[in-house]
Amino acid sequence: MGINNWPQGERPREKLLQKGASALSDAELLAIFLRTGVSGKSAVDLARELVSRFGNLTALFAASQKDFCEIHGMGQAKYVQLQAVLEMSRRALREEMSAGDALNSPGAVRDYLQLLLRGREQEVFMVIFLDSQHRVMAAEEMFHGTLTQTSVYPREVVKRALHHNTAAVILAHNHPSGVAEPSQSDRVLTDALKQALALVDVRVLDHFIVAGAGCLSFAERGMI
User: Taking the CA atoms of the chain, what radius of gyration do you get in angstroms?
Assistant: First the structure.
């Protein structure tokens, strides 16, 4: 039975208008994005199949174009639309994070980092550059691959900090394993960056590790 034949209070769009977006399941939210289903499947059925196929929304959002388009009913146009929605979300969160003191907007910083780094198949190391008022000046992905003290070059981070005339930075990277607990290499790397940046009077305010649904803060753990 098509969604149009459902009781009005159970239709995703009507439900959102009545109860708000937070009241909808992942599949219902995705169904609104999809708008239509395919032969024999409603938009909600198709959305449930997508979530089941990839495991969760995070994995779906991180899916390659090839993997996404292999699903019956999906195609390049839907993939492009999804990527556009994700990028708008990232930019909106970055604007929120940049509007004031980043330290006074920890939720926005976490949300931005999670949307940017969660679900990535390889490790990504990024730096958020802040001015003296802790306002965001730039956010850059600087290194990719297996991250160690030797693969993340402190001198390159220092060069970018000087380029932006930075007063402080927030470091971040992801753990594709899904385990947010910092490794010994993470601790050594953080200390090396703190020492290198201190030479040019730039403070390291925090280092976040994004893994699975979590986002660990070194500052909150007392490790900065």
Answer: 20
